[in-house]
TrEMBL record:
Catalytic activity as recorded in UniProt: [E2 ubiquitin-conjugating enzyme]-S-ubiquitinyl-L-cysteine + [acceptor protein]-L-lysine = [E2 ubiquitin-conjugating enzyme]-L-cysteine + [acceptor protein]-N(6)-ubiquitinyl-L-lysine
Protein name per UniProt: E3 ubiquitin-protein ligase RNF14
Organism of this sequence: Columba livia (Rock dove)
Listed GO CC annotations: cytoplasm; nucleus
GO molecular function: ubiquitin protein ligase activity; zinc ion binding
Pfam family, one: RWD
Family as reported in the entry's similarity comment: Belongs to the RBR family. RNF14 subfamily.
Localization (cell): Cytoplasm; Nucleus
Signal peptide start-end: none
Keywords on record: Cytoplasm, Metal-binding, Nucleus, Repeat, Transcription, Transcription regulation, Transferase, Ubl conjugation pathway, Zinc, Zinc-finger
An example Gene Ontology biological process: protein ubiquitination
Domain of life: Eukaryota
Amino acid sequence: MSSEDREAQEDELLALASIYDEDVFKRSESAQGGETRIFLELPQDFIVSVNGNSAETLQSPRSEYTVSFLPPLVLNFEFPPDYPSTSPPVFTLRGKWLSQAQLSTLCRHLDNIWEENRGSVVLFAWMQFLKEETLSYLQISSPYELKMCHGGSGQSGPPPVPPDAEQRGDAACAAAAGAEILDARAVQDVESLSSLIREILDSDQAQRRKCFDSKMFLCNICFCEKLGSECMYFMECSHVYCRACLKDYFEIQIRDGQVQCLNCPDSECSSVATPGQVKELVGEQLFARYDRLLLQSTLDTMADVVYCPRRGCQTPVMKDPESIIGICSCCNYAFCTFCRMTYHGVSPCRLTAG
């Protein structure tokens, strides 16, 4: 390895490490290489869809999901000794939501970018292309139908061809005109469409949370600006308040037994906090009270539920529509569901006698 190549490689790796966070760029500890995770810039209200004919475990004929982020493309690379003076980086390109044919097309374009910049460092240009131009280059628009090769790893179908097959004009490639040319460096690493949907939704939620945490928001209770990591938003209305204010608000309502009123503090909004959000903010003891009261208030609205009349029990009991006997599953007490007294068998119920 020439000193010029070695210096260019070190400078490129140091520059990328200073530009990107560790979750985007990670240098390898054992070799001149590393991994980059490229999060694409999606249009607003981008929709991914799955056709029911190809969705193994999805119930509806066609499922659609609106996302702001997709799982990243992962570019693993290693510098050969004569990079950048002579050879390009050795790389693989992995993706979950692109087919192997689409990933192969991107691999070939990365080769073209290298040819246009031969002799110069190229990783940053590769990353920028993947981030900013993948969708337009592959002519992907919303709604985008998810597909995958059978077998899950993205390695099935026509046999992979060498990266330089197109340039060499192999006879085999010419004979396969019209067929999709798959590149061995392109890997669709997903097991099934159902697992892909889960990964897309999980990734979207994680990236939304990351973006939210890094922004500043005005709390309309204390009127202070705070980072999103110190705030919480209501799912339905997206109104944002700081955690400290919501914590006080929730605790007062729970102590007063108003568990049905943990809604958005905006007077014109009816959005309700989820149990998960409540649990994040209040202590364990208060959340247990909230959980108990919420269950009780729900049971109170059910006409086929009565409570065990024993003062120390009060366990909910389902009423049998064809009988007046109720048996508590907790203390085994048998009682009349009408008069709430000990079950009196065939004797008339005192509340109906006379």
